[in-house]
Amino acid sequence: MTTAQSFLTKGLPLLFRDHPHATVGTWLLATGGAVVGMIHVGGVTRLTQSGLSMTDWSPLGSLPPIGKDEWEAEFARYKQFPEWQQRKSMTMEEFQYIYYWEYGHRMLGRCVGVLFCGPWLYFSLRGKIPAGYQGRMALLATMGGTQGLVGWWMVKSGLGDDRRGDRNQIRVKPVRLATHLSMAVATYGALLWTGFSVLSLPHNKTLQSLDLASKIPQALRHSFKLRTAALAMTGLTAVTIVSGALVAGSDAGRAYNTFPMMDGHWIPPEIWERVPWHRNLVENTATVQWNHRILGTTTALTAASIVLVGLSPSRAALVTPQVRKGLYALGLATGTQFSLGVATLLHYVPLSLAAAHQLGSIAVFTSGVYLVHALRYARPALLRSTGRVLPPPPSALKQAAH
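Below the sequence we write its predicted structure tokens.
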């Protein structure tokens, strides 16, 4: 076997040991896992209607109320804000329950910040951060720090006096909730990609030296198409997650609890009833849910197509073992997530299913990011950097001859 041909057998595994930056890559992935935990707790905080229980915010936080007097003072402060007008039967025990969920979510966010910034400082002082990666670390720190501000901006939208006349349950504004979740997912994705890249640094010289374009052109063409499709699918997953936040923000999951039709309609007649039209995209329950259904179904079908093509008997051997693992993970995650979405809708959004559905979206996103990274050997920039050109397929050469 030539080196290029054996490449398809071994691939580009993530290296968690035996290179100087393995610890840095592992730390980045661990921080990403902590962000997933924060997203999950944030979802449960929303599902338990706990998000407006804390009515002030400070960057460093504080201890929770201790003792009867402090709890009574905190409860009295909560009663000054609009949500209390809809929840006047709440007991102190019920208030403590929702308060602890919101408090836990905020403190977990601060713990993630410490988990990132502490090791970053340590690794920087020890010279362990790979060359060219300090800018990425600064960007990740900025994204994480900004997330706290965006979270408070979101919460404030449910605390203002302009909400006192609301007849529906008072919630934070859906667009702000979607912004908050989008930033969390973007931060997670950036941590994931950076961690994968650091754990793959020893492979860079190998990729530069291999002439994959001339040695395995058929495999490289297939991988290039697969990578393009995986990029599109991962982007579509991110958009679907944002649309899911709009569903959660407007409580749209508790309407049209039938599938595949929406109360007997493929397209609900009230889908464009608000004026101006763009308000329907974020405020109309029918429109918000219909959009999420279409995006979720499209994401699932796209992922299924990628998996079926990538793992077909004639093509599975044309990709590396890491790509095949990514395809298996994508198929499993997407199938499970679609099933969870339908079950959550049909069962009227129970907490357990809804929380699992949100985690499922992160699993699909993670699988997509991993798959795209595993296919990095087929990216156009690598071909350009090595001065190689991918030859046309044999069919094109035959057509040119005729």
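The chain has a mean pLDDT of 91.
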